[in-house]
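User: Hey, my collaborator sent me this sequence without any context and asked if I could get a structure. I don't really work with proteins. Can you help?
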Amino acid sequence: MVTMGNLYYSFGLIIILYSLSNILKFKQINSLKEWVFKFKKVTGSEPIDKDFRSNEELSLYRGLSVLSFIDFIWSIFGLLTNSWVIFLGILTLSFILRRITNSIKFSLIDKIITYIFYLAKFLLYLLLVINHFHLHYNILDLIKKWN
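Assistant: No problem. I've predicted the 3D structure and written it out in structure-token form, which is a compact way to encode the shape of the chain:
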């Protein structure tokens, strides 16, 4: 029988693959984000299809935009699960890191912080999906025991 939780966390497998892709293609993604940022700064507008340096970059940019939105929506719905604390932590940390790194955009420190965040998010998502299907721990109870 398919439950809402099973459906939700099955969809999480796509999010895990997206997170892993962010880690594996980090250098390429970061370079693309920097190019888009500079393009907007110079032209004052979003790049259109013909502005991209290659079709590969255009595809990557479109994919990142769509999957980032899906990741965000999945995390928002995660606030309705038993693991809401983890999702709230990820969303809060994402917001805080975005504010902190805005002033140091594309520096070495920004790249390190962003990479570590991508890695942590991937591992947490993987843990949440594995926990749902196999471990069945109550994450909130485990967190309370650590305090």
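In plain terms: The radius of gyration is 17 Å. You can pass these tokens on to your collaborator as they are.
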